[in-house]
Amino acid sequence: MKPVVVDCVGKRFRRYRADRPRSIKEALLRGLKGVRAGTTFWALRHISLEVDRGRIFGIVGHNGAGKSTLLRLIGGIGLPDEGRITISSARLVGVLDLGAGFHPDLSGRENVYVNGIVAGLRRAEVRQRFDSIVEFAELAQVIDTPLRTYSQGMRQRLGFAVAIHTDPDVLLIDELLAVGDQRFNRKCRDRILGFRDTGCAVVLVSHQLAAVRELCDEAIHLCDGEVVAAGPAAEVVLGYGQEELDTSMTQETSTT
Amino acid sequence: MPLFMSLQTAVAGRCEGAFAEGQSGDQLRPAAPYDVSVIVPTYNRPGQVQECLEALAAQSLSRNRFEVIVIDDGGVTPLEPVIAPFVDRLNVRLVVQANAGPARARNVGAGIARGSLLVFTDDDCLPEADWLGALLDAFRRWPDRAIGGSTVNALSDNICSTASQLLIDYLNEHHASGANGGSAAPFFTSCNLAVSAVLFQELGGFDESFRLAAGEDREFCDRWQAQGYRLQRAPRAVVRHAHALSITTFLRQHTNYGCGAFQFQCARARHGRPGLRAESPSFYVRLLMYPIRASHRRSAPRLIALLLISQFANAFGFVSERRRSSRQPDLRRHAAPRENGPVRTTVENSRTVRRLAGTGTPWLRALYLRDLLRELLVREMKLRYERSLLGVLWAIINPLAQLVVFVFVFQHLLRLRTPNYGLFVFCGILAWNWTREALLQSTGAITGNRELIRQPRFPIGLLPVVALTTPLIDLLISLPLLMLLAIFTGDGLTSAILFLPVVIAAQFLLLQGLGYLLAAAQVTFRDTGHLLGVILMLGFYLTPVFYSVEDAPSGLRAVMAFNPMAQIITAYRVVIVRGLSPDLRILFALAGAGVLLSWAGWRVFTRASHHFAEEL
Lengths: 256, 616
Fold this sequence. Notes:
The structure holds 2 protein chains of 2 kinds. Chain A is α/β, with parallel strands linked by helices.
């Protein structure tokens, strides 16, 4: 049984109308039927994929293609409207929003504890790994100062460091290969490869085609919620890059 | 890993060497070169493994007639250094497997065993010197029976260990007195069990779907008897069980037994056998009386309490395992043993994975939720008083300031003639503040924690609880002050104060139910919060916070009969100001309503929670 199996999944969203009731008063005045009415559209449709242990799976596509929605569904946030997602893993960790539970007024130390426990660790486990987390984030000097004094990059580094210290069986990463400078970025990638080697299944969403080509074994290309290409990462990325090139060319020709 | 492997082969190699020396000249060995293979699964207990091996090295049975196989179930510390010193004294081998539970570990051991009798014991067991001899004698007489030795608790000072062993003894005695009669018993524990290697393999070994050290022995013995084989006691084969338990590990053990009992039931169903009957009430009565009979007179009350707790833990484990498996249809449907390790969870249209969090057993999950709740509460408290000089003192200063204003306005300006007005109104202020803050904060519990909602497997249901517990902490901080006020200005405290937790619990349940409803409503309709503000303002005047029910006009009094907060505040005052026991009928009615409301709120909340992430 592969740790991540997505079987013909679809997700429908409501398309909000401008006149949708936003308050109880409006809803009551208009009769309750107004609340539910409104058109829907499929944000994802007919998506199937499987990720085995020790594999990295990439999802590429334009903005709004449904990549993050898919990743969230895999993470169990929201339910698919059709199809089925099976996760057979004890520890699923999603790096979807870096630093969930981070608060600017708490110190880096306190935030590591909150974030680590929110990510699924026991308190004692965070304590054990604390030094290693701080070392990875390279923030030993400032760990006791409030988070509001940190730069954006420092916060991201701290969030990422916590996320990768949770020994995931399944790791979901959304657009986070851009964390930190190039050296830190390299470190993160090495860490992800390390997870792969210990049998973790990784699903990652990225716009950086080079990174997807380098890291992923397989990939899918999403467009308007449907899979337009699937297969070895290099091929999918090549096709996507080509399409990207075509559209930008047509745009250029149309503007000139 | 390569280092691991080479060490392992080195140890094994040395064993082979030692063996070859002992049996020099004997080139071709028969299929079973040993009479006995002792199989010891272990997990993270290097010290105890050493003691266990020490006891095995001291067996009266000649060391050439038995081998010892230690299976490391994916523990953290490598065991090679522990095993190495025994290589010259025992035919010992070490196998390392990825963590998969003791059932699989024993099967792995049995798979490579070369003895004709398999003997199972555990790392925390100390066999007595003639243990193997006694088992072997019994095996010679009854080669086709499973043989169970007797297990005694080695830690008689440890009350929890004693209670656990007492429970096993009781079960044995209970079964022995049953239909089977004589010395046959329906199950033997896997820490002192011997079976023929051939029959063990024929039966397929232990059921590896049992993840925990609980229930797998019972299931095996059940299958054994279903195949028409019998069980045989060997009272002379004694193992001293040294499992040091604290109250926490005791609870965990019995929760696990409950899980195991459910898995046992599933396993029976898979083999097409009927489920188990629940034990009769007399079973439990006799269980609770057992410590007295078993000559533990001195510690009998504590033992009885522990046995009682153990049965609740067991029921909790059973029920939560059933819930867990009903969310994982795969587990029930397919008879195939699961793969190593990971716990399966399934998302279907109407099912969801995130509320299972990332942890395996119900017990671990409960511990995780406790950690999470504590961390979120601490975060909340820290944030509230961060960068304030007086810090947590504000939790007392705020209600005190309110108290001063109220006393001034209502006693000195409006001349309310309630006796001991200060204490009277302080009760009202504390209870009302909790209600107000709890409702306001739980309304924003979901909308204000967007990034937590988007965390995979975050237990969202905890957020409203956090929201209403933080103001409860404020109340608890002010409580000593209230007590002091009662002692110095009122008639003093009476034993009625013992009812205070009940009042608080009733209020908690009511608030929890409302909190879930409000939190869910706020996600769709943001005016819930505004509306609540208005209702709370009205509620403040319609609830006897600063006046007493008796002072209210009769029309309003009829309304108050249906205002739960009026009843709650009255109960506080009866307990603290008057020192009398509150009207228990009303209190329990309120608590009951709270339970119902919490249940309904929880249902609504979980239904709605699938859409939270989309709507935020």
